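Re: that chain you flagged

S.,

Sorry for the slow reply, it's been a week of failed gels. I finally had a moment to sit down with the sequence you sent. For the record, here it is as I used it:
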Amino acid sequence: MTYFTSKNVAIVCPTKDQPLKVTRLLNSLCDLNEKPYQIIIADGGKNLQPVINEFSNRLNVIRLACPEVGQVLQRNHAHKCLNKNIKIILHLDDDITLTPSAITNMLKFWNLEFTKTTIPLGGVSFNIVDLPKLKSSKIRNVFLTQNGRPGQVSKSGYASPFLPASRDCQTPWLLGGATAWSRNVIESHPHPINFPTRWAVCEDLIYSFPLRNDYRLMVASNARVFHNETYENMSFRKAIFYGRSSAVFRYHFVQINNELSTWAYFYITKAIILKNFIKGIFASPRHFGLCFGGISGLFSCMWCSVRNGDSKNLAKRLFVQNDNDLT
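Prediction finished late last night. Pasting the structure tokens below so you have them in one place:
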């Protein structure tokens, strides 16, 4: 019987110009009960080597300079540097921190599920325990943004959250930045996003959703981690970019999955734009940025649909946004 240990585990973390976040992540890794055999910080910037040097005596960690930026391309570059004994790859965003037992419990879950004689185990998401629970809402049902089961993907391309999880479960998609993947899956299924990105929203859906029929995709409720990001202080320009990116990448997700509906996507996107406009009035001005960006993205997607254009090219063009507009 195959049994995996921490010697078969590697962490890959794509990042760019975030030394404080990487420091926080590595500090949490120092406190693990079982440490991964290999840690690769896939760096799209230039200021992380001093941070890595601080941890070199406590962790088997390296900084890998990446020739192209974008979380997917940086992860792909890191995959080429994995040790031959690595069988489980942990994709972690730089804003994640792990509880001391997170990897121990992930390995327990993985070893139990791996032996089951059903379709192969493909990947397992960690349980992000500090995410807000989504409350039931009739309005979300009307606008196709809420489904009967956690993790279910609607015709519109909207995926219901499945975290935080109170129990182990199977889902039709997995997170991009807090998930353990089988190395066999990663190597046999290249990521469809093979171009530079500044914010690859929906990349987890784009990659994992098509795998759901050939592999079991699961959540390990006891493999607990924290998400330390907040978007409350987002600049107005960055909010516009995020709103546009969300609209465009979700459109691309819908276009490459035949069971999803373009018209349902247009319907939900209009609802999200309206929601952000209302929140801009009563909550935070950044929602106006998300609203205006969503409008821009929606019109681009509608024009692309009318012309029978390529949604992938539409997503590629987001990369030309100037870095100064995202601060």
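What I noticed first: Residues 75 and 92 are 10 Å apart (CA to CA).

Talk soon,
D.
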